[in-house]
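user: can you give me the structure for this one chain? tokens are fine.
assistant: on it. calling the predictor now.
[tool input]
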Amino acid sequence: MTTKENQLWRACTSILVGKNASADGSVIIGRNEDSKPAWPKHFRQMAAPMPYTFTSKDTGFTIKLTEPGVRYTATPEWTAEYGVFAEDGINGYGVAMSATESAYANPRVLAYDPLNPKGIGEEAMITVVLPYIHSAREGVTRLGQIVSQYGTSESNGILFADQQEAWYLETGSGHHWVAQRIPDDAYAVVANELSIEAIDFADTDNFIVSDGIAQFAADHHLWRENTPFIFRDIFGTNNAADAVYNWPRVVAGQQLLTPSAGAQFGQTNLPFLRRPDRPIQIDDAMRVLANHYEQTPYDPATKSSDAHKYRPISLANTQESHLLQLRPNVDNSIAGIHWLAMGVAAESIYVPFYAGITDTPADYQKGALPYSADSAYWRYKLLGILADRDFGRHKKALGDLQDALLAKHLGLIAATDQQLAEAADVRALVTTASNEAAQIAREATDQLIAELITEATKVSPLRFQVDPNL
């Protein structure tokens, strides 16, 4: 996959939740990784890397990694032909990262600091950052320094989290970037636009920026000194395509989490940060990433004349959807939860995997082109394809399955947590629990798949009602 193709296909939706905005005090980050309707992902516990020189197959970006790293979970591509695209994970220090949310810089900015085709891009970011960082803030500074030194091939948003903080970093040009700490009582839903608003350069607790960004903007008449430095206005876009493709997803997320704010489809320039009307549960975050404008005229699963007016959050191009939950009062290098839904979030199951697993289930390490029955990716894609045959009729069975499995998985997590303090081998304990979570989902999903296949035999176009008197 070339960088140009990445920009075309990798158009994701992200969510970040501060610890006081969540129901249990977790810091949560998550994203739908959108690429192609059939492009398998794997899920692995990556080994701690030793010093080596990394070279990106996507852009040719090269960096010497001189220090050993730590293990981390990741969802790499099924093929290494175009690079790793590790995308998301929690490392052995209990730090989470998700990369990237594709975005676009305006031509005024790129005229003076163009993207570097040989700079760091999405394909490399997790691999050269996540194994080496001890906190979310350190992740921001490490990636920011790489972008400043080597340049970036893309404009992107990158999510970081630890037990205390969530941070969002945006690359606005070839070498300039900003990052903002998500307030503890707030959340953000981001959809393929540069989204960070006013930068307070004096507030270094909550903002980190590239060296010289203000002077750069002033020198090139992109920003007038002594006025608010609104990053998304100076570096980003807000055009007719954004109004159809990006802003509606932000509206949908804010309607779900802050209905009192009254966000309406058709609105643009919504605030980057919102306070939720009630504490956000993990399944609230799942509902955001699985949203396809249900119960509105814009739902593509309906026959409404406006069904395809706006690009939904959950769509057929999603490779995988993840939520990385950094929980209070636990060691998140072991007990952080990597929730993973292979395929389309609206038609899949979020399965919880503990960050401390020693290995992932075999079917999560399989899957290529074409379809194969031994792959977790293809299992959940198959579920969605069968549901698609009559989505209006099958969505209740699908929703019932998702609800039932969430209840079982939450119960399994609670039972496992109670054993952590007394376990002789905590990594073995969480690996067993994670495998059990995957098995519970596998068996229930296979049962619904069997039911949908059996039911589908009744609707063949070659079916003919035989006269009982013949």
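assistant: here you go. The first strand starts at residue 13 and ends at 17. The domain at 13-364 is CATH 3.60.60.10 (Penicillin V Acylase; Chain A).
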